[in-house]
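Worked example
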Amino acid sequence: METILPSPELILKIEQSEKDYMRERMEAIRDRQGNPEGVEIVFFGNAMCIYSKTMHWPSFNTVKGLSSADLDCLDDIIDFYRSRQRKVQFEIVPSRVDQRILSELSKRGLYQSGFHTSMYCVPSKEKFFLPDHVQIWELNEEDFVTYATIHCRGTGLPDNGIPHVAENNKILWHRPGWKFYIAYVHDQAAAAAVMYSRNGISSLTFAATLPKYRNQGLHRYLLKTRIMEAANQHCELVVGQCAFLSQSHRNMAAVGMRLGYVRTTWTER
């Protein structure tokens, strides 16, 4: 598999891909009739602030893209979230900010609360073979309850969230760049994965496996499937995010993805 060495230009591409897929996802949810999830997307300088009134999870209420040039925007960003009774969270990418920004975040009552890993690779059409009992298919529009069931049960969300997850992802199926996959084991839906491609970069935006089907290689098969699809689309880069040293991290490394950077999360006390 061809490799690209880390560089400031590569970091920008990886970060931009994260911003692109999250903006596209949140815009699609916002554009549902009546904006039922109360989604807002606001820009302050380079920083993209996303917020949802009903979806309280940090990934739906966070700041992406902050740079050293945005020092004068910090108070406006913090006020945006405080006025909506939400703690502000910044995703800080190394090389994009300097010591002044970090010092000012600390002065404003924020602390480094976590790490998250961004991986990347050049896509390859290298063939791989699935075991006879495993099949991977691209989702049809009528399959989103199945997808949402895997999404919720694979990530520990309650079943009453299945209809909401189904609706908030079904709307993406109609939009350019999105592809959804389900892995079946002995004809039973067992794992799911999503990718979003734009401007020659494919983002591996989500994957989950039902607990009873874990440790059977399904996540790696879904990674390889999406990487091959990115190659078929003539993308120059594939990127994905994962918790540092998680099973997802190890699986991404096993299929040839390399560490792009470890970003930090800064959270209001």
